[in-house]
Amino acid sequence: MQNVERFKMKKFAADAGTLFNRAVQFTEEKLGSAEKTELDAHFENLLQRADKTKLWTERVLRQTEAVLQPNPNIRMEDFFYEKLDKKKRDRNNHQEQLGNAMVDAGNDYGPGTSYGNALVKSGQTQIQIGNTEREFTQATVNNFLQPLKSFLEGDMKTIQKEKKILEVKRLDLDASKNRLRKAKSTASQQQDDVIARAEADLRVAQAEFDRQAEITKLLLEGVSSAHAHHLRCLNDFIEAQTTYYAQCLKYMQDLQRQLGSSSEGESSYSVGGGNTAPNTLGPGISNNYSTDPMIPSAPPMIQVIAATPNTEKKQARVLYDYDSADSSELSLLADELITVYRLPNLDPDWLMAERGPQKGKVPSTYLEVLE
To answer: Phi and psi for 240 in degrees, rounded to 5?
Structure first.
């Protein structure tokens, strides 16, 4: 029993001495009074690539989760459920909530009415989109997020652990080198055994460092395989996203056709009794509907109203780029052609310019007016 206790005490003292030597070595390195074993350039590049991989994988993972669930409170709730190994609460997404509200409203107004029927159809489409979103979310979690999480919690944690062990072995190696250097600098006939012990410690430390460096290097080189796997997962994510948006577009186009056919059916009825449909197209556009059921409806007449004063317009070439200072001005690009004219109340150094539907004032010094 005493031998066991004595062995434990010796082991504790040896471990404490090792920790003390590491702390001394680390402090002296920071102060610049001790040498540090440097890794080769290839190894350093592998370490940097692993650090970048960890950083960007975590960031991409977080942002993808934010896309799938924009509400941070729900993301936090799902995180706790996941850590507690409990099933997440089944909740409707925003599209499904909107769809249910539209269907309920349409049924309350009456599905026989135009507005109620349109609400019901729109709500059903929103629910379909919500179901498609749910499928897209599940596919993204399974094929993209889960592999990234597995990498971070598996391979990347192992790499980080082995990197820490390598740093410890490196401190032990450099501490052994320093002890040997100090022993040789104060060498005497009585210290030969001290030098021999220091050399033996150095050989052991060097062997352990080399072995740990090889293990860490193999793990770091495996990051290339992780990148290839993540690329396949990314392709799966893009494919799922493409399918999701294509399905949503199809649903909306179908809904648009249904609502369009309904509105055409309602707008084509005959108006009798001298009643005229109200003008809902805005000023300048007339509702030219005939009240006679025997005469087909004529297309709307559009009254064109002059938007610019009756002034002489000329072509001008822009000499230099110009960025507009406010909404009353027009930005210019060098060498483009625009139409310019003067207004009575405009500053003489400015001209009104038109480029397609865009209008605004521009400085005349930036232009060459073509006669």
So the answer is: -65, -40
Task: Please name the residue ranges forming H helices in the chain.
Answer: 2-31, 41-68, 72-83, 94-109, 114-140, 146-153, 155-185, 192-221, 223-267
47 touches 220 (CB < 8 A): yes
Q: Other CB atoms closer than 10 Å to residue 192's CB: what's the count? A: 11
- pLDDT for residue 350 is more than 50: yes
Tokens 């056709």 belong to which residue?
A: 257
How far separated are the first and last CA of the chain, in Å rounded?
Answer: 113
Residues 6+ apart with CB under 8 A from 173: 37, 202, 205, 206, 208, 209
CA 284 to chain centre: 46
Backbone angles phi, psi at 355, to 5 degrees: -140, 95
Q: Which two tokens stand for residue 82?
A: 């996941």
- Nearest-angstrom CA–CA distance, 219 and 148: 17
Helix (H, G, I), strand (E, B) or coil at 292: coil
For the question of whether the overall pTM of this predicted structure is more than 0.85, the answer is: no
> 96, 130 in Cβ contact below 8 A?
yes
Helix or strand or coil: residue 142?
Answer: helix
What single string gives the DSSP state of each residue in 236-247?
A: HHHHHHHHHHHH
> In one letter, which amino acid is 218?
L
Give the integer Cα–Cα distance in Å for 353 and 338: 7
Burial class (CB in 10 A: 0-12, 13-18, 19+), 179: buried
CB atoms within 10 A of CB 35: 13
- Geometric angle at alpha carbon 10, from 8 and 15, rounded to 5°: 95
Amino acid occupying residue 327: S
Residue pLDDT, tens place only, 132-155: 998 999 999 999 999 999 999 999
